[in-house]
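Please fill in the sequence for the structure shown.

STRUCTURE ENCODING:
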């Protein structure tokens, strides 16, 4: 990941500080003050370049990359904003404005990197359906997604808080919509005892996200990668989770008179992401007349495939977007990439078809969340009164 964004990091770390030095420091402060000011950025860039050159996916290397990226962005992004405002014309009001805005940005980013990714929120949604069987009126589903446990290394207390909050909600069903780890199944090991404590009447069901196929690690062979994926799947089984890989699970009401179906599909995203969903296989033996909840990591599958069906499932649960881990006044840059990126959406051509996209819980490599706080989604199903 660092390798892919290294050119952007070079621009952010080196160019703004060069122009700030030329406009504001040269001839005004001593040489060593200038060297110190610019040297921080140069050192950060060289450190990131070394990490990219010696790309490694060990837990220690991942931790170093994440924290170095944190510091680099915390320094360079406010500097870039300052340079864009103040450097073109050295007016006192522009300099003060640039200093004020860049200071606010620095403080906001510092919060996002230290406390924001710990600020767990619960978002509650109620959905009413005339097609919902009577025995599932008031059925409570908790959805969590995108734990990315490799980034949570050393912060088991945050995951423990997640589990405690989920259990307090007393859900009937817990749905995990993918991306349990970043690169390796071993990232899950220390969290198995914690996640095993998450309980619901109908248990925990899960699907695989794009990261769970472990394609971001440099494997020596495809077989080695497949074996690692199977290991991750077995670890989920050991936690008591029911992993649905193009499979369906029929859930019965307490009186056994009614049923709904949970359809779990493998990840299916646009090119560069795994596209492994098999709708026909998952729906084998399942009637289109049944009330169906589709679990699919990538929300883009809803528009690409689900809405093309004559009788699509009533609800799709997805994750993947993280809302880019940034949202302000309800807007996220994720909206530039996804039609459905966070929250509840409805298609007008289908009366009772929704998708809920959670903003997720964790982050890849670099802990950071601002506005798009770590989310627990509580979805309550209600039967429409006829």
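FILLED IN BY: designer on duty
SEQUENCE:
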């Amino acid at each position: 990941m660092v390798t892919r964004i290294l050119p952007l990091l070079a621009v952010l770390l080196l160019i703004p500080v060069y122009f700030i030095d030329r406009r504001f420091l040269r001839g005004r402060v001593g040489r060593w003050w200038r060297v110190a000011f610019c040297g921080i950025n140069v050192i950060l860039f060289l450190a990131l370049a070394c990490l990219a050159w010696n790309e490694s996916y060990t837990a220690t290397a991942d931790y170093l990359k994440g924290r170095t990226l944190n510091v680099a962005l915390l320094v360079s992004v406010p500097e870039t904003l300052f340079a864009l405002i103040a450097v073109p014309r050295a007016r006192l009001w522009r300099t003060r404005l640039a200093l004020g805005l860049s200071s606010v940005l620095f403080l906001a980013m510092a919060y996002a990197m230290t406390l924001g990714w710990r600020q767990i929120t619960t978002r509650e949604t109620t959905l009413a359906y005339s097609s919902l069987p009577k025995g599932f009126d008031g059925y409570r589903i908790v959805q969590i997604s995108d734990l990315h446990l490799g980034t949570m290394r050393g912060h088991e207390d945050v995951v423990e808080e997640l589990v405690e909050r989920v259990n307090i909600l007393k859900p009937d069903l817990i749905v995990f919509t993918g991306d349990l780890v970043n690169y390796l199944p071993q990232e899950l090991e220390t969290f198995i005892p914690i996640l095993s404590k998450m309980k619901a009447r109908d248990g925990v069901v899960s699907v695989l996200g794009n990261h769970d196929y472990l394609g971001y690690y440099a494997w020596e062979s495809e077989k080695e990668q497949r074996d690692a994926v199977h290991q991750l799947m077995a670890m989920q089984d050991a936690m008591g989770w029911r992993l649905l890989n193009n499979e369906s699970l029929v859930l019965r009401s307490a009186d056994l008179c009614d049923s709904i179906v949970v359809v779990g599909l493998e990840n299916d995203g646009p090119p560069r992401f795994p596209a492994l969903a098999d709708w026909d296989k998952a729906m084998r033996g399942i009637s289109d007349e049944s009330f169906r909840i589709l679990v699919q990591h990538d929300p883009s599958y809803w528009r690409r495939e689900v809405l093309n069906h004559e009788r699509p499932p009533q609800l799709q649960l997805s994750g993947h977007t993280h809302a880019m881990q940034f949202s302000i006044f309800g807007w996220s840059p994720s909206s530039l990439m996804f039609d459905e990126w966070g929250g509840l959406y409805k298609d007008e051509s289908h009366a009772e078809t929704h998708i809920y996209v959670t903003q997720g819980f964790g982050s890849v490599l670099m802990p950071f969340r601002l506005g798009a706080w770590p989310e627990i989604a509580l979805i309550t199903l209600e039967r429409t009164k006829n």
